Each structure stands twice: as C-alpha cells, then as structure tokens.
Amino acid sequence: MRTTLLLQQLINGVSLGSLYALIAIGYTMVYGILRLINFAHGDLLMVSAYAAIYGIALFSLPWFLTFPLAIISTGAIGILLDRAAYKPLRQAPRISLLISAIGASFLMENLALVIVGGVPKPFPRPDFFNHVIRAGHLHIQVLTIYSPLITLVLVFGLLYIVFKTRVGKAMRAASWDFEATRLMGINLDSIIALTFLLGSSLAAAGGIMWAMKYPQINPFMGVIPGLKAFIAAVLGGIGNIVGAVIGGFLLGVFEILIVALLPGLADYRDAFAFLLLIGILLFRPTGIMGERSAH
Amino acid sequence: MSAKWKFCLNIAALSALFGLLYLFSRYGSGYQIRILTNIAIFITLAVSYNLVNGVCGLLHLGPNGFIAVGAYTSALLSMTPAEKELNFILEHLVWPISVIHVPFLVSLIAAGAVAALFAFVISFPVLRVRGDYLAIVTFGFGEVVRVLCNACQSVTNGPLGLKGLHPYTNLWWSWGVAVLAVIVIQRLIDSNYGLAMKAIREDETAAMAMGVDPSRRLLVAFMVSAFFSGVAGGLLAHLITTISPGVFTFVLTFNLLIMIVVGGLGSTTGAIIGAVLFTWGGEALRIVERPMDIGIFTIPGIPGMRMVIFSLILMLVILFARNGILGRWELNWDFLASKFARLRRTDTPL
Fold it and tell me: What architecture is domain B3-290+300-340?
C-alpha cells in the first residue's frame, strides 16, 4: 500500500512538473535573448485559460478547435507584450525594463479583473480528459498521463525548431551575441517576436492544462505557477531549454513528494520553492545544466 | 546658499508643516485627517524604499514582507494579554509574547528593529545576487513572509489575523515618523555611505576598484530601509486596527514602486511627491469605481479600474518619461534658488 501511494504521488509530481516545464521554457527563451525576466509570462496562462473558456462557452466551439485558437491568440498577445512593453526599452537601464515587466503583469491581471470580474469561473473540462484509469490501488486521471506526454511532444517540436532550422540558428546566435547577430544582417526584431510567440504558445498550452487540472479560473491564477516555473528555469540553468524542462519536472516531483511525505508541512508548500531558489542561487547560480542553450 | 540660511529655512518649513497639520487636526474632517495620516505613512515607506531602489539601484521587491513583520511585531507587543486571549481562539499564543505588553512607542521601535533583523538575515542570500535575481529573491522573501503569517498560527493567528488594535496612530505619530525618516535617510544619502551607494549603483566594479565594499554599504541601506518600513508597518497596523496576511500582498510593493518611479528613482523629495500624489490621487480616483450620473444616463462604476489606471501610469512613465517628475534632482533650497535665479535672469531684458 505504501509503495502504491508513493507511485501515485510520483505520477502526480511528474504531471505537475510537466506543466512547470512548459511554462519555464518561455522564461528561459526570453531570458536567453533579452536577459530579462518576463514577469508578465505567468499571466499568459490566465489569458489562454480565459480564451479557452470563452471559446467554449460563448462560441460553443468544440475543444479541439478552441484550444489551438486560444494558444494562437495567446502567442499573439505575447508578441504584443514585447512590442508594447519591452521593445521601446531595448537601450534603457535594466531596472526600467524590469519595472516595465512588473507594470505589464499588473496591467494584464487588472484588465482581466475589470473585463471578466473577480468571481472564479469553472473551467469546462472536456470528457476526453475526464476518464479515470484504475490499476490495482492506483487511480489516475487521464489528464495526469496526457500532460507529460503533450509536454514532451511540444518540447521535441521546439527543440527541432531551435536546433534544426535556420530561424532556430538565428535565435541561438542572438542569445550568444546580440550585437554580432545584428551585424550579420539578421532581423533581430522578428527573431525576438518569434521567441515570444513560441514561449507564449507553450505557456498557453500549459495554462489550458493547468486550468483543466485546477478548474477554478480567476485573473490572478497565473502568478504562482509563473513564479514556480521561473524557479524551475533557474534550477535547470536559465537560458537553457533542456535545463528548463528538467528543472520543471524536478520541481514538480520535489513539491508533491514533500507534501506527501511530510503532510505537516503542507501549509508551507509555496515557501519551499523559494527556499530552493535561494539555495540554488547561493551554491550553484548557473543551475544544474549551466547557462545558455547554444553550447 | 549658506548652511545657516538653509537651517533656518528648514525650521521654517517644518513649523509651517506642523502648523498646517495643527489646523487640520482642529478644523479638518475625519476623512481629511485620515488621508493626511495615510500620506505620512506612505512618505515614510516610499522614502525608505527609494533608498534601496533608487539610491543603491537594487530592484528590491520585498518591502511588503518588512511592513508585515513590523505590523505584526508592533501589534503583538502593544495589545494587552487579555486582548490577545480574545484574538487567539484556535491556537494559543506562544508564551513570552502572550504576556508582554509595552507602550506604543516601544512597540514601534521593536517593529523597526525586528524588521531590520529580518533584513540582516536575508541580506546574505539577497546581496550576493544582482539585477533580475535580486528582484525575484526579494519577491520570494515577501511571499515567504506571507506564507509564514498564514501558517504560524501560534504567533500570527494565521489567516484570521489580529483584530481590535488600539487606534494609536494619529497625525502626530505618522508625521513625526515621516519627518524623522526623511531626515535620517537624507543625511545617510548625503554622507560618505550615500556616495558609496551611488557609486555602486553607477558602476559596481569601478566602485570596488576605488576601495568600496559593496556588501557592507548595501547592507546598511537595506537595514535602514527595513527599519523604517517596519516602523511604518506598525503605524499602519494601528491605523487600520485589523491586520491579516492578506493586507501585506505584493500590491503594497507595487504601489510603492509606482510612487518612487513617478517621483523619480533616486530622489528623496521625488519619493515624497510620489507618495503624496499617489495617496491623494488614489482617493480622487475612487470616482471611476462609483456609478456616475451624467444628465440622462448613468455610467456604471467599474470596480478594479483604479489598479488598471495605476498600472497604465507606471508603464507610461517608465516607457515615455523614465525620469519621473524630478529625475535624480532633489527639490531642496539650492534647487529652488537656482530655478529662481534663472527665472529672474530670463525676465530681465539684456
């Protein structure tokens, strides 16, 4: 019985970790190129969750149409975010850029609050993700299995783009040396836009799965997952895509196992991630995989 | 301008300020007095926050943690044992705190001291990193304090919070603290330490090459800032008389950030102007959340619209007017004298 419980929790941890991983990729890609923590990244989860809710409820589209549409529109909002909040500050001191990021995050949250209201909305989970698999004492929701699988498929797609295509090469070049890349005649603005598009789309996919996992949606739902994902990105070595994925899985398993093994500390769950972050920054600031993906 | 002149002018300005406050305390409405008290608390917070963010150039995002620590410390110390008994229903308060009862002033000083102690402890991880990492670690500290306030029920009473504090905070307490904070922090900025902090802000490597030890100078700034944030937290607790972990969220830090960015990062007088504008403007903007009657039809009030406007103001200032109102200038007597002289010069024909 003890081992099945542990296995159950391990599966939950991997499932949670896959969501952290998806969100962490966006942080790490933007950091790789702009050297900026995109504080507003977590709020893209909320945008995609609401987009999906309105797609299903308002236009009564089927979920397999709504979800891709929500992901695409969130990607577009990611590009808009860069154009409006970060692009005018490319030459500005770093502190201005960070303040702009915080301002953008608050603006998105509070605009959402004004537009959709503060009452949490239930997320309509499609039946497709609702089955429960029973194996012995294990009870596993299909979603719990699907989310790591979907994450892996998306990550391999991303790795293909980054490492096997021309634009991917340009992205890696930009994260290696921004100015030299510009001198080579590469249009950096479109490369940055593509980075935001990819990162935001992955966050949107993560946001929809997050919303199915915890189906109470409110304008501030993105804050905590966003922070945890950022910690995952630092854990894996910020700027490193594979590191972000590994960091995400590790953080998810770590969190679930701590709560499972030491239930008395469940209240402190959100504090653990930050203590972990402080520990990493003190002892291994470049994370477990080291910085940058271009190596 | 001679130092003697400036001293006399400062005394005159302070007397004028307290004279005005006296008039308000005699003839002002309760609402006006409340806003003035709030303004003073936010001046204290903004000026101490500006010391770390503007003068040292560290994007510190955890003042809400220090404010929470100060508020809880001062509240727990100023309540009588009987009041504490009434508050702690679910779990009993741990022993030494449950019997201590001290005057308000002592509780405020203790609030500052405990907050400064917290600053000292977290400075070891925080001051080893810079830039984005410092921002996220201090943000994490603010969150951890909130989580601890929720979880440590036998000290903080958890999510229930503390109720029924005595409303000790009035105009004189809050403005007294604000004036003290401004004087202490401005003297620190003008001192050798302040010069070193500015040097670190401009170029840390160069400052180190000149023999400045960054971690020591930044630690001083961090602890002084935390001390006054803690004291202001104590004042805030005894103004609103009910505190719970939900009061000290990141929104508080965000508001302080708006004040110092609008006023001009690195300027103490800018922070003061920012705090006054924000507190007064925040009250004035309540209109947008109330239904408005314009002749034939009514515009419904939009709850939450104020935060949208504040975020927009922050973004517009940072994108288009990065220096804020004062930039790094101080609105002091020299500045006024030079402006006045220039005005006279342009007035007289050649």
Answer: Orthogonal Bundle (1.10)
